[in-house]
Amino acid sequence: MLILELTFAATPERLAxxxxxxxxxxxxxxDGTLLAAGPWADDSGALLLFDVGRAELDRLLDAxxxxxxxxxxxxxxxxxxxxxxxxxxxx
Length: 91
Description:
single chain, alpha+beta, 4-stranded antiparallel β-sheet
């Protein structure tokens, strides 16, 4: 699994692009590619949890113009290996 962390700036472009981006996220969630996503409570950024490899995540980022919108920055991408909870990997 990969965690994508975004940081946000308060720009009108980001807010205008958000509805189309959230529609893409809903489709990715429906097909199991995206496990969870949401903004930080203070709207300074967001966390997205993908069940894909790095090459597929790069393709998804390239396909969604939101990630190139002024006010949106990819702060980091990290592989995550959960050991407790419903998303944990093999024992």
